[in-house]
Amino acid sequence: MVSTVQAVVPKKRAFHSTMKALVFRGPNQIVIEEVPIPRPGPGEAVIRVTLTTICGTDLHILKGEYPVKPGLIIGHEPVGIIHELGIGVTGYEVGDRVLVGAITPCGQCSDCLRGDLAQCGGPIGGWRFGNTINGAQAEYLLVPYAQANLAKIPSDLSDEQVVLLADIASTGISAAESADLQIGDSVAVFAQGPIGLCATAGAKLKGASLIIAIESDPFRAQVAKRMGADIVLNHEIVDVVEETRRLTNDRGVDVAIEALGTQHTFENALRVLRAGGTLSSLGVYSEKLSIPLEPFAAGLGNHKIITTLCPGGKQRMERLMKLVRRGRLDLRPLLTHKVPLDCIREAYRLFGDRRDNVIKVAVTPGVV
Ligand SMILES: [Zn+2]
Ligand SMILES: [Zn+2]
User: Fold this and answer.
1) 33 with 21: CB under 8 angstroms?
2) Which of 40, 97, 127, 180 has the fewest CB atoms nearer than 10 Å to its CB?
3) What separation in Å is there between the alpha carbon of 102 and the centre of ligand 1?
4) What share of the chain in percent tops pLDDT 90?
5) Per-residue confidence (pLDDT) for residue 321, from 0 to 100
6) Residue 280 above 80 pLDDT?
7) In angstroms, what CA-CA distances link 75 with 177, 195, 214, 261?
8) Mean pLDDT of the chain
């Protein structure tokens, strides 16, 4: 039976040397194109993508706010099936279902060996898919450093259960981890978009006793409660700083998580923080960021400000899948829409305009 499958695959491949992919052609220009299916070099793998999604970062790329080179296939959240393995990749078989993180560290450089996988080879260096190499919004994807980045998916987990672990869940949960959140800590999470919702889930997983989420959208507020928020404050109605201080007996929270990337939310995160507390920043800032002196106690408040880029690599993916498998993390409520790759441009508009209560859109490339 195995040999029959092996005999069929190369024959099929000969007839399918091209694939559909979403190609960035310049600001506000993304096009579905027919491009060659990649072939793996030594240490690489090619997966057939079975599910992917669109990230807020992709919207920044589309608008030209984050520069990538025209001609690049974008997207960085892949689930798929190993289609071809390059020489030197061991412990995997063609046909294995795998999750690949948005961050694909080499596992060998001094940054990786220090444990800073996201900064592999230099600042933001671990983020390759849809940034410096072709990404996941395609039928096939070349995975670099495959040995360090292919995480096998247990057969009892669906693609939908794991796809968000590639990026937003890994990133969101990392806010509480990087802050070294202690059990019983109080936490405020600014903004409940996809990453903020996962940050809320992460604060709960780490044992926070009080999670205050800040969000004005009623649907997102509802999902925030499902992900673990005790209270959701609508910043359009209440003074968030005053109310958070009141909820913490005027002490301030132990950890404030910034999950939007604006001066205003960054500043408010600092204003709700207790002396010696940690501001854990996940946002991507596109303007100059300044620190107000008073809530920063003029630099003498022992505040810690930390930033985290999505942690990647296969071990990270395996750990996150264990949480899903044991019922401690369910991200399916965030997958609000599902579209085929052919309709991905409409999905970008829906996601970008935040229409129809969208949180994340699952994208299914066509089956070969
Ligand atoms: Zn992303
Ligand atoms: Zn590295």
Assistant:
1) yes
2) 180
3) 7
4) 93
5) 98
6) yes
7) 25, 16, 28, 20
8) 94
Note the pTM of the prediction, 2 decimals.
Answer: 0.93
Q: How far is the CA of 106 from the centre of ligand 2 (A)?
A: 4
Tell me how far the alpha carbon of residue 117 lies from the centroid of ligand 2, in angstroms: 6
For ligand 2, the distance from its centroid to the CA atom of residue 273, given in whole angstroms, is: 34
Q: 138 by DSSP, 3-state: which?
A: strand
pLDDT band for position 16 (cuts 50, 70, 90): confident
CA of 107 to the centre of ligand 2 (A): 5
Decide if pLDDT at 366 tops 80. Answer: no
Nearest ligand to residue 145 Cα: 2
Q: Which residues contact 35 (CB under 8 A, 6 or more apart)?
A: 18, 19, 20, 21, 23, 73, 138
Using pLDDT thresholds of 50, 70 and 90, give the confidence band for residue 287.
Answer: confident
Which is nearest to 128 in space by CA: 163, 103, 106? 103
Closest ligand to residue 115's CA: 2
Q: How many residues does the chain have?
A: 368
Q: Check residue 54 and report its DSSP letter.
A: -
Q: At 294, is the secondary structure helix, strand, or coil?
A: coil
How much distance in Å is there from the Cα of 108 to the middle of ligand 2?
A: 5
